[in-house]
Amino acid sequence: MVRSGLPAYVLLIDGFIRGEPDSATMLLAGARLYSAYAGGFVSDADRGRMLADIGLDYARRGLCADHGDFCVALNGSDFDAFQTELGAFDADDIGPLYTLASSYAAWVQADTSDFARIAELPRIEALLKRVAELDRGYDHGNALAYLGVMNCLRPESLGGKPETGKALLQEAFTISGQKNQMSKVLEAQFCARLLFDQELHDGLLNQVLAADPVADDLTLSNVLAQDRAKQLMESGKDYF
To answer: How far apart (Å, rounded) are the C-alpha atoms in residues 25 and 101?
Structure first.
């Protein structure tokens, strides 16, 4: 039902944004919707990139509507200035900040072969770390989960930190009250596969498949996690 209804909701939000193009509330809502749609419901790569592009654009505009100085630093080339402005955010800003960070991450995930996107990873990592500093448990610890994935994108010989990534994903799972099954799927997909650890990979996915997906605020995410776990179990036969 959610999969079928999302396109209509996307059109509705777009209509609101066209009517209020400078509304931070509407822009950030659009960013969350587009990024979630691109990452969880779209299999076509070109369409996924397009949706993720729109999601990031809305997130930038939404945050910049109330934080002009940060917007200048975000769009500039001076990383130190970006980090300085980032440090000025406090707990009241965590929602918009997290929306930008997660939309940015979804934008990279939509095309990991694009080096221009990969080059933005330091900014995304800085955004996520600031969110974690402000509230480590925000959104069921998903900022930590994103950071965990980032540490598992490259082998240790190329600067990756897979053990750190695993620890962050496990912490995110604990913070969620051991209810957020997506953190286990991500650990299997990115960390276990990077380390070529089939036992860890299959063990995590089997735990996800055996879990009850129903949990407050996490049921949809857990159902999507179980769908992805099935796909990873199948593709794992050729991977390992």
So the answer is: 16
Q: Is the pTM of this model over 0.70?
A: yes
Q: What is the pLDDT along the chain (240 residues), one digit of tens a residue?
A: 777 778 888 889 999 999 999 999 999 999 999 998 887 787 788 988 999 999 999 999 999 988 888 989 988 889 999 999 999 999 999 999 999 999 999 998 888 888 888 889 999 999 999 999 999 999 999 999 999 999 998 889 888 899 999 999 999 999 999 999 999 999 999 999 999 999 999 999 999 999 999 999 999 999 999 999 999 999 999 999
Nearest residue to 173 (alpha-carbon basis) of 199, 198, 148: 148
Do 120 and 108 contact (CB within 8 A), yes or no? yes
For residues 188 and 233, what is the distance between their CA atoms, to the nearest angstrom?
10
Distance CA 144, CA 92 (A): 19
